[in-house]
């Protein structure tokens, strides 16, 4: 893939006009209040994953509407029972994937963190090693995939459920034994990055956010400049439902990482790939340049991978995160995090 989007200097200045719904904050406040009527921890069971230096828990927590959502929790062996409370990384998964096996993602546990990997409701059968969380909600007519499930009503849309799950995953992480509730970070790649942006805007008092090549940002721009899926699901749907454009984009505005990320308070490390046709660079820079714009922009960094497509930085980006996050946590006084949580 050749370079196809704006030149990098223009991307660095790209601040598109916003199309936020007037009731965006009320919509999410009501949604999360309803979800939080349920006790967050449903079950935490220690499992033998064959790992001797890492403890593994199979977590079930109450997500959207109290529905059970699965997650893996890995952490340094013995750290739940003794030692200083540990910081937490809550990770969300890319489009079509599920939580798979606990041994697939061990970097954060071996770096001294509690690592929560949230399963993705109704996904987990496109790549990877499977998921374990159903999505019990129905849908009207939709194109294949999840982008257009409930597309005519934000109350019914799939991403209302998934993004609520993400916020509740943070709540569940904070309820685990011997964790530092003030040092919780959200992270993810692609869909996981878009969900991390949503969580960053919807959760109070996060210590950091690390969205890699994030999906779910600046939908109108995305469908105008790429034919790639999953954004292509919106095009596919509108090619059949020819009069639905205004309603479709109004619904998606409630789940746009540009809008939700503006409400974040935590430092962030983004990544972007300039040849990425799946999540075009201008959609990522729209989210990056608007990030925390309503809250007094904290430290916000971005890694640019000029010659990569949607794979982005891969191990290079994880190496960057493993160095960036401890630095940010060390520079974030407890009082500052507590103040952010009280906003």
Automatic annotation (TrEMBL):
Transmembrane segments: none annotated. Residues 124-150 are annotated as: Disordered. Keywords: Hydrolase. GO terms for biological process: polysaccharide metabolic process. The active site is at residues 190, 276, 310. Its EC number is 3.1.1.41. One of its GO terms (molecular function) is cephalosporin-C deacetylase activity. Substrate binds at residue 95. Residues 136-145 have a biased composition (Low complexity). Residues 1-326 form the Acetyl xylan esterase domain. It comes from the Bacteria. Pfam families: AXE1. This is Cephalosporin-C deacetylase.
């Amino acid at each position: 893939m050749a370079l196809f989007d704006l030149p990098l200097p223009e991307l660095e200045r790209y601040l598109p006009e916003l199309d936020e719904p007037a009731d965006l904050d009320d919509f999410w406040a009501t949604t999360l209040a309803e979800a939080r009527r349920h006790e967050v921890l449903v079950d935490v069971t220690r499992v033998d994953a064959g790992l001797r230096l890492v403890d593994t828990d199979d977590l079930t927590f109450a997500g959207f509407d109290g529905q059970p959502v699965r997650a893996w929790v890995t952490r340094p062996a013995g750290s739940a029972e003794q030692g200083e409370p540990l910081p937490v990384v809550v990770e969300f998964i890319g489009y079509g994937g599920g939580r798979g096996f606990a041994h697939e993602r061990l970097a954060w546990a071996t770096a001294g963190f509690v690592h929560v990997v949230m399963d993705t409701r109704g996904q987990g059968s496109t790549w990877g090693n499977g998921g374990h969380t159903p999505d019990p909600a129905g849908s009207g007519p939709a194109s294949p995939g999840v982008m257009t499930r409930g597309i005519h009503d934000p109350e019914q849309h799939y991403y209302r459920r998934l993004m609520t799950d993400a916020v509740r995953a943070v709540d569940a992480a904070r309820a685990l034994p011997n964790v530092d509730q003030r040092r919780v970070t959200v992270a993810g790649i692609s869909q996981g990055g878009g969900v991390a942006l949503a969580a960053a805007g919807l959760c109070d008092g996060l210590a950091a956010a690390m969205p890699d090549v994030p999906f779910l940002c600046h939908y109108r721009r995305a469908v105008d400049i790429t034919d790639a899926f999953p954004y292509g699901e919106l095009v596919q749907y509108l090619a059949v439902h020819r009069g639905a454009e205004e309603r479709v984009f109004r619904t998606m505005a409630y789940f746009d990482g540009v809008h939700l990320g503006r409400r974040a308070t935590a430092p962030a490390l983004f990544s972007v790939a300039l040849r990425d046709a799946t999540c075009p660079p201008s959609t990522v820079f729209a989210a990056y340049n608007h990030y925390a714009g309503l809250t007094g922009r904290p430290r916000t960094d971005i890694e640019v991978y000029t010659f990569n497509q949607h794979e982005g930085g891969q191990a290079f980006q994880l190496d960057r995160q493993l160095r960036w996050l401890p630095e940010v946590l060390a520079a974030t006084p407890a009082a500052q995090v507590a103040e952010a949580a009280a906003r």
